């Protein structure tokens, strides 16, 4: 399934989290929340972090859901203010979350602008080079091990660390990270500011690192080559 279709399904959870945030805002005196929805294999996490201008954002709420087949099951919740737990659980149980399963073929609508759709399609073309390419490349979430949607951006992560911590495979391991950061709102191109292991295609930032053992770098080389092809193709039409 194309990732943009998965993102269409995830928007159900984005809207659900927004509704939950609006409810919780009524119970606090002052503050702002940061929203995060993440999909990792068969798990969906909804997070609200309370903004703090001095320290790091404070985790206010996290709700975990397990997806099995066509059913989403609420697993557990953490909430910073324990006196709100009963009310939040009631709010969650009042919604039919099975209507928003992200890999339901019927859920193909989304509200992202054409630039975001273009970036996601480019990311998919690059990520395909690592999909089922070698051991550890069996990703259940489209071509990625994790998809994250925040207030400002979409993050697509393809991570393969197969055998990287095994003392029995010191010369045969994978240590490859491919990450895409796609702004949801229009952003200025920054292709002239690429750092180490970093690439830009328009406003999309790509981080790619392959520190696999020498015998396992073929997939990484294909990914690196595809990044360069996509960068050149993007420049031709933009």
Top keywords for this entry?
alpha+beta, 9 strands, 28% helix
Description:
The protein has 238 residues and is α+β, with helices and mostly antiparallel strands. The protein is 28% helix and 29% strand. A 9-stranded antiparallel sheet has the order 4-3-2-1-5-6-7-9-8, with helices on one face. A hairpin with a 2-residue loop joins strand 8 and strand 9. The two termini are 27 Å apart. The model has no long low-confidence stretch (mean pLDDT 87).
Question: How large a portion of the residues is in β-strands, by DSSP E?
Answer: 25-35%
Unreliable segments of 5+ consecutive residues: none
**Helix amount, in percent?**
25-40%
- What is the string of helix and strand elements? HEEEEHHEEEEEH
The largest sheet is:
9 strands, antiparallel
Mean pLDDT: 87
Helical region count?
4
**What is the structural class?**
alpha+beta
**Alpha carbon gap, first and last residue:** 27 Å
Q: What is the 3D shape? A: globular
> Could you tell me the number of beta strands?
9
Radius of gyration: 19 Å
């Amino acid at each position: 399934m194309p990732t943009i279709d998965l993102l269409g399904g995830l928007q159900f959870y984005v809207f659900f989290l927004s509704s939950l945030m609006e409810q919780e805002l009524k119970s606090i005196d002052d503050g702002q929340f940061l929203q995060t929805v993440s999909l990792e294999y068969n798990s969906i996490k909804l997070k609200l972090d309370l903004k703090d201008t001095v320290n790091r954002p404070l985790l206010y709420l996290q709700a975990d859901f397990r997806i099995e087949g066509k059913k989403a099951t609420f697993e557990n919740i953490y909430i910073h203010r324990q006196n709100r737990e009963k009310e939040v659980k009631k709010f969650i149980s009042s919604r039919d979350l099975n209507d928003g399963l992200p890999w339901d073929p019927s859920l193909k609508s989304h509200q992202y602008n054409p630039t975001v759709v273009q970036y996601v399609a480019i990311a998919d073309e690059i990520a395909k080079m690592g999909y089922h390419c070698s051991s550890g490349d069996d990703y259940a979430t489209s071509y990625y091990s994790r998809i994250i949607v925040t207030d400002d951006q979409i993050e697509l992560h393809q991570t393969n660390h197969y055998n990287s911590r095994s003392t029995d495979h010191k010369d045969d391991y994978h240590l490859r990270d491919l990450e895409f950061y796609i702004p949801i709102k229009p952003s200025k191109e920054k292709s002239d500011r690429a750092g180490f292991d970093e690439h830009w295609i328009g406003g999309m930032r790509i981080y790619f690192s392959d520190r696999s053992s020498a015998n396992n770098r073929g997939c990484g080389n294909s990914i690196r080559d595809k990044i360069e092809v996509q960068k050149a193709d993007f420049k031709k039409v933009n």
